[in-house]
Design goal:
Layout (H helix, E strand, L loop, with lengths): L1 H46 L3 H14 L4 H14 L7 H20 L4 H14 L2 H15 L10 H17 L5 E5 L4 H13 L4 E7 L4 H8 L26 H8 L2 E5 L1 H15 L9 H7 L10 E3 L8 H15 L2
Parallel strand pairs: 1-2, 1-4, 2-3
Length: 332
């Protein structure tokens, strides 16, 4: 009799457990259905460029299902679309931080998803945080056995940049001075090699911003050094050079005659000069050669001088700010 009661009790307890488990599964199923609903709605808002509405939907989806990698990715993309490069405000900085946080979480959940990897790298690019972007690339290389193609310290990259030197010789055979932006040294290495091979007396002058100019100080030290990165309008030239550099540092030492520095104020004024006088949209890194000429940073300028203007990747807020502050200075 006691055994029967015990068995009956066990059966009752088992039934209760099954009921609760079923209820839990049903609750989980409902949560995931609701999460998918908000995720789908968020995607609809995202496709219509309603990024703030999309953010609200993705956050609701993640509150119900925190493992929804796609929601993290598009949450990060939504913040990234609201972020404005060059706008120095607390609100803009918060958008950048939230974009990175969401995209990092998406990467943790789906480390092999190429779209997630691209989104994260693109955000680092928008922030112009090249050191952090390179660290991320090196992590991927090590984790997956990938091949990394260096953006500047690669013989094929340098050779490609050297074709600019060949074009200069073709368009202006009498060139005697080339003024070239310097970051990691790939651009100037290729151009200098091409020009010096044609005429060893041609002068090649590199230009860097005066905020943490790694190549400039490394040349003077006779070896590569590292520096704390500083904010600069010439952000494409910012960042350290890998200490295991194989080509560019040695080539700059051998083929470049001098490297000079210009200030952020001078670079901004030169961007305005290019915009007003030549109708050219030039980013800070691309304007350093113009600044070197306008502010007479180059000694012994030749008679046939070329300043290489290397890019136009400047955000509209920054370009408008530069125009408002500096264009009037060049009027008349």
């Amino acid at each position: 009799m006691v055994r029967v009661r015990r068995n009956t009790l066990l059966v009752a307890l088992l039934a209760i457990v099954v009921i609760f488990a079923a209820a839990g599964c049903e609750k989980l199923k409902i949560s995931r259905l609701r999460a998918n609903y908000y995720f789908t709605n968020g995607n609809k808002n995202f496709s219509q460029n309603l990024f703030r509405n999309a953010i609200s939907d993705y956050e609701k989806a993640l509150a119900l299902n925190p493992n929804l990698a796609g929601a993290y990715r598009f949450l990060g993309e939504s913040y990234k679309n609201l972020y404005r490069p060059g706008a120095d405000t607390p609100d803009n900085a918060e958008k950048a931080a939230k974009a990175l946080e969401a995209l990092q979480k998406a990467y943790e959940l789906e480390p092999l998803n190429k779209d997630v990897i691209y989104s994260l790298g693109d955000m680092y690019d928008k922030l112009r945080n090249f050191d952090e972007a390179e660290k991320h690339a090196l992590r991927l290389q090590e984790e997956r056995g990938l091949t990394k193609i260096d953006g500047y310290d690669d013989p094929f990259i340098i050779a490609g940049q050297g074709t600019i030197g060949l074009e200069l010789l073709e368009d202006l055979p009498e060139i005697d001075t080339a003024i070239v932006p310097v970051g990691g040294g790939g651009l100037i290495s290729g151009i200098a090699l091409a020009l010096k091979s044609a005429n060893s007396s041609d002068r090649v002058i590199g230009v860097q911003m005066d905020r943490a100019p790694v190549m400039y100080h490394s040349l003077r030290a006779g070896a590569l050094i590292t520096m704390e990165e500083e904010d600069t309008i010439a952000d494409a030239l910012a960042g350290n050079i890998a200490l295991n550099n194989q080509y560019t540092f040695r080539m700059v030492q051998e083929y470049v005659d001098d490297v000079v520095l210009v200030s952020d104020e001078e670079i901004a004024a030169s961007m305005a000069f290019a915009l007003e006088k030549h109708h050219l949209v030039v980013e800070g890194a691309g304007a350093v050669g113009i600044a070197a000429l306008l502010y007479r940073r180059v000694r012994e300028v030749g008679r046939n001088v070329v300043a290489v203007v290397s890019g136009s990747g400047v955000g509209l807020p920054l370009l408008l700010k530069v125009a408002q502050e500096h264009v009037a200075c060049h009027s008349g």
